[in-house]
Amino acid sequence: RFRLGDTAHHEVYEGECVGLILALHMLSEQDEVRTVSIWADNTAAIQATATDKCGAAHYLMDYFHSLLTRVRERHPFLKLRICWVPGHTGVDGNERADVEAKMAATGRSS
C-alpha cells in the first residue's frame, strides 16, 4: 500500500501507475523469477508502460522504466506481461487490490 495524498492533488491514474511500480518493486526483491504477469484495470496506465512519450504523470512512468531496467538486470531471462483485467467484475485479485487502494486512500498505509 502506498498513499499518494488527497484527491485534490492526485488522480486515480497516478495511483494505478504507482501500483505498477509497486509490483516491479516486489519483483525486484525476488530470486530466480522467469515469468510474471502483472494485471491492472486501467488501460491508460498499461499503455503508458509501452511508451516514453510525455503524458500525464510522466515522472511516474520514468521511474517505472528505470525500475524495469534494474529488474531486467537482476532477472535477465524474465518474461514479463502486463495485462488488462476488467475492473469491478468480481475478479478476486482485483477486488483485493481495490480494498487495499481504499485503505491507502484513507491514510492507512505502510
TrEMBL record:
What name does UniProt use for this protein? RNase H type-1 domain-containing protein
SUPFAM superfamilies under this entry?
Ribonuclease H-like (SSF53098)
- Taxonomic lineage of this organism? Eukaryota, Fungi, Dikarya, Basidiomycota, Agaricomycotina
Instruction: Please give the organism.
Output: Dendrothele bispora (strain CBS 962.96)
Q: Which residues form the RNase H type-1 domain?
A: 1-106
Q: Which InterPro entries match?
A: RNaseH-like_sf, RNaseH_domain, RNaseH_sf
Q: Annotated Gene Ontology MF terms?
A: nucleic acid binding; RNA-DNA hybrid ribonuclease activity
